[in-house]
Amino acid sequence: MKHIVSSLLALLCAAFPAFAQIATQNLRCESLTNPVGLDARQPRFSWQLVSEKRNGRQTAYEIQVSTDAAWKNLVWSSGRIATDQSIHVAYAGKPLASGQKYWWQVRVWDNYGNASDFSAPAFWQTGLFDASDWKARWIQIGYEEDSLLRPCPLFRKQFSLKKKIRSATAYVTAQGVYEAHINGERVGDAYLTPGWTTYNKRIQYQAFDVTNL
C-alpha cells in the first residue's frame, strides 16, 4: 500500500507543472473582438492573463503583428517589454495601410519566471484612412420626385466573378438610412445605418466582411 501511495504522490507532483502554466485570452483591438473597418492608425491592444498560480501577474509582454496568419510578413515585433500593462497597448510598428487585414498575437511572462506560448492569433482590418481611398461615386434616382411621398428607392447592380474569392469587404454609407443585400442575403446585423449626422459636414460609413456572401 505504501508503494502505491508513493507512486500516486510522485504522479501528482510530476503532473503539477502542467497546471502551473500561464496563457493569454480575450484578445481585443480597440476593445473589440476582430474588428473590421477600424480607422485607428495606432490601434490599442488588450488581453487577459490566465494563471494557475496564486497571485500570478504579468511582468512582461511581447506583441507580434503580421499581414498574414503564417507570420511571414511581420510589420511589428515589440520585443520583450518589461511591464504589467495589458490594456490599451498602442501599436508602434510600420504605418498601416487602408483596407488591410492584420493578424496579431501576444505572449507574456509572469512574476514566477514563467513564459507563456504565443496566444491564438486575433486580427483586425483597417478602414479607409483618407478620402482618396474612396473609389465609389454617389448613386441616386434619376428623376425628380416628391421626396416626402416617394417610396424608398431600391438600387441594384449585377456582376459576375469567375475566380474564387479570397476576401471581400463592402464599405457602405448613405445620406439617410440604408440596408444592403448581396445575393439575397442581408449584409451585417445593424439597423438605421449609417447613423445620423449632419450630412453636409460628415457621414459615417460601415465596413462589412462579405466574403461568405
Key phrases:
3-stranded antiparallel β-sheet; 213 residues; 1 helix; mainly beta
Can you describe what's shown?
The chain has 213 residues and is mostly beta strands. A hairpin with a 7-residue loop joins strand 4 and strand 5. It is built from 1 helix and 12 strands; from the N terminus they run H-E-E-E-E-E-E-E-E-E-E-E-E. The strands form 4 sheets. It has a 5-stranded mixed beta sheet with strand order 2-8-7-4-5, with no helix packed on it. The model is unreliable at 4-20 (pLDDT under 50). It starts with a helix and ends with a strand.
Structure at a glance:
It is built from 1 helix and 12 strands. The protein is mainly β and 213 residues long.
- C-alpha end-to-end distance: 65 Å
- Helix percent band: under 10%
What profile does the largest beta sheet have?
5 strands, mixed
Low-confidence stretches: 4-20
- What is the strand content? 25-35%
Number of helices: 1
Topology of helices and strands:
Layout: H1 2-19, E1 22-29, E2 36-38, E3 44-51, E4 58-66, E5 74-77, E6 89-90, E7 101-110, E8 122-126, E9 169-172, E10 181-182, E11 185-186, E12 206-209
Parallel strand pairs: 2-8
Antiparallel strand pairs: 1-3, 3-6, 4-5, 4-7, 7-8, 9-12, 10-11
